[in-house]
Amino acid sequence: MLVGFVASVLDFVFLQMMVIQVRWLVIGLLLMIIGMVVKSLARKKLVEAGFGSVKDTAYLQVVKGQQLVTDGLYRSIRHPIYTGAIIGMYGWVIMLSSLYGVLFVTIGFAGYLIRIGNEERMLVEAFGAVGNAEHSSVRVSIMWPQSKRSCRAGMQTVSRE
């Protein structure tokens, strides 16, 4: 993802000669704000579910006494923190109207998919059949809003004992 940011800045400065395209600037800023709001609301829910602080939500861990979050954004988006981050990153590169940035952020998205896989394993390990049964049918749309009842539960798992 960092490569996407660097590519978009270099593209903007050297190839686009720092010419601001207002429509892309506005769209990008809106996406960045939406991404920040989604991440903030999701992290707030995790703190309410047993995490000590917002900072603790950045680590893959299951904290003692943590509950499975099934309301708020987690009711319809399985991983809203990652979703918000992706929306914000695309907002950044769109704001600078950089196709190179979009390309590299898309490639960097694979890193999130690996992290999500690790998190899914932790979810099943921590919550057993409950976490697994509620999420088993949600593989393709794991980060985007769902209307199916089968994906109502979601959480960022993190484990520190």
Short description:
This protein has helices at residues 2-15, 22-48, 80-95, 99-135. It has four helices and no strands.
Q: Which helices and strands occur, and which strands form pairs?
A:
Layout: H1 2-15, H2 22-48, H3 80-95, H4 99-135
Helix pairs in contact: 1-4, 2-3, 3-4
Keywords:
4 helices; disordered C terminus; 161 residues; Four Helix Bundle (Hemerythrin (Met), subunit A); mainly alpha
Distance between the termini: 30 Å
Largest sheet at a glance? none
Strand content: under 5%
Distinct helical segment count = 4
Overall mean pLDDT = 80
**What name does CATH use for the topology?**
Four Helix Bundle (Hemerythrin (Met), subunit A)
What is the H/E string? HHHH
Q: Assign the structural class, choosing from mainly alpha, mainly beta, alpha/beta, alpha+beta, or little secondary structure.
A: mainly alpha
Tally of distinct domains: 1
The shape, in one word, is elongated
User: How helix-rich are the residues, as a percent range?
Assistant: 55-70%
Structure summary, number of beta strands: 0
C-alpha-based Rg, rounded: 17 Å
CATH class: Mainly Alpha
Task: Assign the CATH architecture.
Answer: Up-down Bundle
Uncertain segments are: 135-141, 148-161
